[in-house]
Design a protein that fits this description.
The protein has 502 residues and is of the alpha+beta class. The protein folds into 3 domains: 245 residues, Beta-lactamase, CATH 3.40.710; 119 residues, no CATH class; 39 residues. It has 15 helices and 17 strands. Strands 2-1-9-8-7 form a 5-stranded antiparallel β-sheet, sandwiched between helices. The chain has a 4-stranded antiparallel β-sheet with strand order 12-16-15-14. A hairpin with a 2-residue loop joins strand 8 and strand 9. Helix 3 packs parallel to helix 6 and helix 6 crosses helix 7. The radius of gyration is 42 Å and the shape is elongated. The C terminus is likely disordered.
């Protein structure tokens, strides 16, 4: 017969097995947590270092403090012009474009009536930082500087900027012209993702045709010293960038560099003649301590909550795909299995219409990357307030099946979701074990009880006299018929009865 002690021992043995499993497979977060490197400092008042691919903020100082951007504004101006204008179109300099600048500000020598192509104007603006050229591009693109400023603010908002306001295309001082290190990193991220912009901005010199001030073709040169090989500030791997300066803005500097598959964006605001040193320190820090990892198939399949409510149109469950062109940024000592994932429905206007959610990846509480979860093209996100369709993500991401079958797994199963599942299984196993032991114990008790009853009955039979007056009969298991219980007659009496009847 199983005792309570043996039952407890079996349960304890199962629980200890699971404890041992989790100790080996999933170390304690307190012991396994990877710290975020922070061994860098800058002299500028505002700064940010961002992974251009993942959008992860590696370092920030006064990230959301507003500053005057000065001429780094021209990065946003160039991006909008590239997106909306034909580069071979001809623009004409108006009187306002030429004269609506601060006296003594940077110019390429253009005067009212001068004409150049949009392509030539972009080189003059980005390399020479010519303010009258920025005005002419704005007027050509939007009709007026005011209309172009509205386009700038709309573009910034679409990129996620929440603390920025732009009043002109050049970056000259204006009370309503400001941004933050983080916001402008988002703008720079979009710009350096545009191949046409990179083509312009990575150029170190360009020849422009004659104009009113320059009767002969003339050269314009890049102002970013880290891009020039003959400069003491040259930095290998620089893709491009933009300088800026006004008395109110101080030194501002945007830089993009790439090394070993990691592309970084540095933004310096209100620097104090140390903007190049600050930028070098940030880039060295980023390349030395961080890595970029591609998001693969099981990013969603192993990390996402399997039951999510997605607001989708249509009655059929859609085919969901994860954008695997995105990446996450991690300290070099961190592993992909250290991150977790969450769904976010805060979609920007520029997201495709079939985007149903963003998958946000975290290392601890730090956002390290974002990917896009999309439905097939026949599905659109429902209007706000509509009834959601229930979708099990793990079961629905069928488009990723081939990669799963081929073993292209980028992220291990996250303990944040796997541990509760296995604990639940363990609890189920323990419950089944307890139930089986109890059933077996009941059967054993019942068997022993029946044996005891049978023994008692047999003992009563052996010690009882079936002919005694006190015994009206034998036990029901050995009962006799009524005739068997009568006292037999004397044979002589029986013969007398026969004679009388004869």
């Amino acid at each position: 017969m199983l005792t309570v002690l043996s039952l407890r021992r079996n349960i304890l043995r199962v629980l200890l097995s699971f404890v041992l499993f989790f100790t080996v497979a999933f170390p304690s977060p307190a012991l396994a947590a990877v710290s975020w490197p922070d061994t860098v400092s800058v002299s500028a008042e505002g700064a940010v270092l961002m992974d251009a691919d993942s959008g992860c903020v590696i370092y920030g100082k006064n990230l959301h403090q507003r500053y005057y951007p000065a001429s780094i504004t021209k990065i946003l101006t160039a991006l909008i012009v590239i997106e909306h204008c034909d580069l071979d179109d001809t623009l004409t300099f108006s009187y306002d474009a030429v004269h609506n600048v601060e006296p003594g500000s940077t110019s390429a020598g253009y005067d009212t009536g001068d004409q150049i192509t949009v392509r030539q104007a972009l080189y003059a603006m980005l390399l020479k930082s010519a303010n009258e050229v920025a005005n002419a591009l704005a007027e050509h693109c939007a009709g007026s500087i005011e209309a172009f400023a509205r386009m700038m603010n709309e573009k910034a908002a679409s990129l996620g900027c929440t603390d920025s306001s732009f009043a002109n295309p050049s970056g000259l001082n204006h009370p309503d012209h400001y941004t933050t290190p983080y916001d402008f990193a988002l703008i720079a991220q979009a710009a350096f993702a545009n191949p046409t912009f990179v083509e312009f901005d990575s150029t170190t010199y360009y020849e422009l045709p004659p104009n009113s001030t320059n009767p002969e073709p003339f050269m314009v040169y890049c102002g970013h010293k880290m891009l020039k090989k003959n400069s003491g500030h040259y930095y290998p791997g620089i893709i491009g960038g933009k300088t800026g300066y006004t008395l109110l803005a101080g030194n501002t500097l945007v830089t993009c560099a790439e090394r070993d598959g990691l592309k970084l964006i540095s933004v310096i605001m209100n620097g104090h003649q140390t903007h190049y040193d600050d930028t070098k320190a940030l880039l060295d820090f980023g390349f030395s301590n961080f890595k970029n990892e591609a998001i693969r198939t099981d990013s969603a399949a192993s990390l996402l909550n399997p039951e999510e409510n997605l607001n989708l149109s249509g009655t059929q469950q859609p085919l969901l795909t994860l954008d695997t062109t995105r990446s996450v940024t991690l300290p070099k000592k961190a592993a992909l299995s250290d991150i977790r994932a969450e769904l976010s429905y805060d979609l920007q206007k520029e997201e495709p219409s079939n985007t149903v959610a963003l998958v946000r990846f975290f290392l601890g509480d730090r956002l390290v990357g974002t990917s896009r979860l999309s439905a097939d093209s026949s599905v659109e996100v429902r209007p706000e307030g509509s009834r959601p369709v229930h979708i099990g993500l793990l079961r629905r991401i069928r488009a990723l099946g081939k990669q799963l079958q081929n073993g292209a797994l980028g992220l291990h199963f996250s303990p944040f979701f796997l541990v509760p599942a296995i604990l639940l299984i363990a609890a189920g196993i323990v419950w089944i074990l307890i139930r089986r032991l109890r059933i077996k114990q009941k059967k054993e008790t019942l068997r022993l009880s029946r044996q005891l009853q049978q023994s008692l009955r047999n003992e009563r039979i052996l010690h009882s006299d079936p002919w005694s007056e006190q015994n009206d009969g034998i036990s029901s298991d050995h009962s006799l018929s009524g005739s068997a219980l009568r006292t037999p007659r004397d044979p002589s009496t029986r013969r007398r009865s026969r004679r009388r009847g004869s």
